[in-house]
Queue: 4 jobs
Job 1
Amino acid sequence: MINRLFLFFSIVIYYPVFGQSKIFQFWSEMGVQGKINKKLDWNVSLTNRFHDLNLVTTFPQMSFKYKLVDWFKPSMDYRFIANREENGNYTNNHRLNLNLQLEKEIKRVSLGFRFRYQYSFKGLTMNYEPEFDNAIRLKPSLVYDVKGSVFSPVLSSEFFYNPSSGLYGKRYTRIRSFAGIDINFKGPHGLQVGYFFDKRINLPRLENRHVISLEYTYNISRKTKKKESN
């Protein structure tokens, strides 16, 4: 079963798409997270996306996640997004994400599935763009815990669906696949490095984005526990 799951994610990530333009970007994210109580977590982060050494998108985000049970964790995110247009001007946008996260562990493998409904307001883009407009997003994921190692391989694929009744509505518009490594340091520091293959589908302007990503998180709760144990 595990081999079949790895094969599925590998096909989705590396399946070639011809006749599309190629874009190369670098994404960075820095965040701080902690706990309000045993069931409620919070997270604050800042994400920057670069293309040709220019900042093309930046957004701070505030998130809250509630653990109903170990395998089900709903959450909500708020983002303020600044996106660079082709003329060099930045447009501002607000977005809410409503997430339902399902998780299941099978031996050393963690399987996940996230359902996300994103709602954007105040200045939607003139042409439909699945990154910034209203969308439903489905994301299966897989993490493998390597015994005796701080490195954990991560695979995921996310499918964007436009639920509106407009020109490009009622269709899947983007597939975003990821392969990376979680580096599990002892203490409050967390790091993830990886590669995104991001492709638009069923839209008039098709493109492939190749993205190198770097994500750092500082967990206040882990630091507090360490001090208490001392």
Note: Helices lie at 2-14, 220-229.
Job 2
Amino acid sequence: MAHFDDLAAMVYRGALLFVVANTFIKIGLQKFNGFDALAIVLLINAVTQPLLTHYGYILEIALSGIVVATVAFSAGAPRKAMLFLSGVVVFTESLTWSERIVGEMDDIERCTPVNMAATMQCGLLALVGYAVYVSEEDRNNTDDDEQDMQLKTWLIILVGACAARSAAMSYDCMRDKKSISQFVNMLKTVVLVSACVANGEDETAGVTEY
């Protein structure tokens, strides 16, 4: 009987095949950029994570911070804001995987790190949502503003995916199960990859229509 890990692996492998095929097209059209590279690295890590043990989780933490920082930078966030967002994401993601990476700590209650991560990421989601809402009220709608708004929307979605995964892990930790968190973690990876694919350079841009 197949387990959820087998289903997740199948989803990741299918997504990897699609992204690799799309990458070859973009390379041929000279439209390959950093977002496309991030999508491939994310999926390769997801596929090989069972073989990498705790190093796979460390790489996942780093990639989550990099994707958030890249989207924030592309959306026009100041350097300090970008570093703050990516720093909070990396720190809270580290808390969620602390038991897998360093093992259970004797002087800290088992669910405390993931509960802290869920609380901080929900607070970060509220902060990012408020900042985007306030900044958009002061803007006039132009094509550049619409593109920035798309990136800011993706930033909210990314932080929301991280917060949802942490909340699911917190819930599963208190029940001493991992069924919900496994599913939400797969969704989070899919969201990260989707953000990279959606914001990669448009391969149809500049093509002459006949």
Note: The chain has eight helices and no strands.
Job 3
Amino acid sequence: MLERDDDFDRRIRNWLQPDQHTVERLATRVLSAHPRTRRNGRLFALSAVAGLLMATAGVWLWHSTPADVDEYTASFDGDVLLIRAADGTTSILGPPGGDPPPAGTAQIVFEGEPR
């Protein structure tokens, strides 16, 4: 039975041992690679990583930046204009009362606290 195991071990070792000619050919090819080829590969890999990082940062900034503009909704209820702000406050603008202002003038009314 020992002879069978020895034969099996020998076959496995022969099967796993690389061919010397193949090893020499591979080593020669790797060591003689042109430096420009290696540099181009590194440049491509670096460019791919930089592009991926920039895309990730852009998506993160796009999703993490809140809107700069407050949202307002306006609707008419007859002659009255209702303006609702995002913070829940409502402004009511009604039709002008009394005499209208002279032509070429305007009235601007702002109620509330300045920001």
Note: The longest helix spans residues 35-64.
Job 4
Amino acid sequence: MVDERGGLIGVDTGLILQTLVENAFALGEKRRAERPPDAVAAVIEAEEQVVVGGDDPALEHDLRHAGYLARVVEAEMFEPARQPAEWLPDMLTERLTLTGSWARAAAAVSGDLARSEPLAKPSPDDEAAMTWRVPGPGGHVRHYLARRTIEDRLLPRDQPLPIDPAELKRAWLYGFFVRACEEALPPEAVLEGEGEAKPER
């Protein structure tokens, strides 16, 4: 950053990141009562795609929904986030040929991506860190936003979790990738039962 005299001003990257994460978290919380379209909600709630486990399926579903909303909020905050991930349609189409169902394909792809993502802050060079390959603010922002959400959801608990709380990030990521799938290949663009995209008119 440059000041009025043309000199450089030090930027507190940590403060900027914290402010960005808090703003995104607050916007997501305002939309918490919103429900996705039925076809997408079914994927978020898919029981066969449990990515965390533990003793509280309601917590997993809540975090999935929060991850979904986080991607929605990104598009409002950042212009690059309004672009879909160009690599996702091929992954979805491949699953569609096996399942014939957008919901099952999106659930499988989102589950695989959520399970492969590092639990620690992901490096941009890590090929498993697919949060860096979805247009928007990047993997670090998404990592910290997931942690911020998990901290909020665990505050009211009076019982310890039977799993490492860090594992809950995978539930948040699942919802995030469901939204990314919806952007890349919307359910209405697929002929259910045939595993094919609808022809353009």
Note: Residues 17-197 form one domain.
